[in-house]
Amino acid sequence: MAYEMNFAPVLARTPELINGTIDTVILSSQSIGIGLTIGLAAALLRVDGPKWGAVASATYVEAFRNTPLLVQLFLLFFGLPYMGIRLTANEAAIFAISLNLGAYSAEIFRAGLLAIPKTQVEAGLALGLSRLQVMRYVVIIPALRIIYPSLTGQLTLTLLGTSIASAISATELTLAGAKIESQTFRSLETFLVLAAIYITMTFAFRLLYWLIGLWLFRRRIPKTGTAAATLTLPREVKS
């Protein structure tokens, strides 16, 4: 007996799908912001930090890169209450996804930082820049340009990974879809609609990353293989 597709019951729940999409965007945006901050800090500690910082950073990265995100999510949501720390489902989801992204992005940031020749750093210091200015203009921005495609790819995976948060009933799109499916009994139609929404969100985020890249790298930054003497600096630093 042929299966007859009927999207009407699913599309009738459009407000719930919209709310779920908004919740996913908020969850992923918060997790990405926190995760990138953690990742950059961990990478800097490992590349240019004290020995104890490098060891702590490496331990954190290896622990989170070698365990599944779902296990990390369960440990935080179900394990922390035994230590007297209770998190809501959404708080645990943000915490787990941020730490997971931080571990992966730390290795991406580290690869970019190690790609910057020491001669460029020495050239920046020789020009009278402070160590903070050298880190900002000579190291981080050129390194970010090198790793940007890999980093944005990881951010896309983070967006899609928010669906795992439905396992602890965190409010996001997959949980909304699961509720609709259980009430309409239209499994195929529901998850086809969810897939279409996720694809749309992914392309929207990729467009946003592309626009950010255009803005961030609008100044021509010398390639890492150029001589230190050819180092060009932003106008505000020259002044």
Can you characterise this structure?
This protein is mostly helical. It has ten helices and no strands. Helix 2 (14-48) runs antiparallel to helix 8 (173-184) and helix 4 packs across helix 5. Mean pLDDT is 89; it is low at 221-230.
What is the H/E string?
A: HHHHHHHHHH
Distance between the termini: 77 Å
Apparent shape: globular
Our estimate of the beta-strand percent is under 5%
User: How many β-strand runs?
Assistant: 0
Give me the Rg, rounded.
Answer: 22 Å
**Share of helical residues:** over 70%
Number of helices: 10
- Main β-sheet, in a few words? none
Low-confidence stretches: 221-230
Mean pLDDT value? 89
Structural class based on helices, strands and sheet pairing: mainly alpha
Task: Give the key terms.
239 residues, globular
Brief characterization of the structure:
This protein is mostly helical. The protein is built from 10 helices and no strands. The protein is globular.
Show the helix and strand layout.
Elements: H1 8-11, H2 14-48, H3 51-65, H4 69-79, H5 89-114, H6 118-126, H7 131-161, H8 173-184, H9 187-216, H10 235-238
Helix pairs in contact: 2-3, 2-5, 2-8, 3-5, 4-5, 5-7, 6-7, 7-9, 8-9
